[in-house]
Amino acid sequence: MNTFKWIGRIEGFSFLFLLLVAMPLKYIWEEPLMVKYAGWAHGVFFMGYLGAALYVFFAYKWKFTKLLLAAIASFIPLGPWLFEKKLIGK
After folding, report:
1. Is the pTM of this model over 0.85?
2. Is 3 helix (H, G, I), strand (E, B) or coil?
3. What are 70-77's contacts with CB under 8 Å, separation 24+?
4. Fewer Cβ in 10 A, N or C end of the chain?
């Protein structure tokens, strides 16, 4: 479970970096290179988060709704952190 939490934190950070740093660089200052690399890294972390959520779903016998909420959280900025805090606890 601890690994899932850390993957969620990294995925959330990569999403925020993509939205708050890379996207403004691309669309305001016309520097698209950061989006290429940050987007690629975020995609890897996103897939890792979903894979880890699926693993935890089976390992800890989560209800399907909890798995669905974990997936939805990955599309929301700060979502993985909120999911961790409210639904997983600690």
Report:
1. yes
2. helix
3. 73/8, 74/11, 74/15, 74/46, 74/49, 74/50, 77/12, 77/15, 77/16, 77/19
4. C
DSSP 11-72: HHHHHHHIIIIIHHHHHTS--THHHHHHHHHHHHHHHHHHHHHHHHHHHTT--HHHHHHHHH
User: Predicted confidence band at 2 (pLDDT cuts at 50, 70, 90)?
Assistant: confident
The 10s digit of each residue's pLDDT in 17-49 is 999 999 999 999 999 999 999 999 999 999 999
CA 31 to chain centre: 24
Phi-psi domain of 56 (left: phi exceeds 0; alpha: psi -120 through 50; beta: other) = alpha
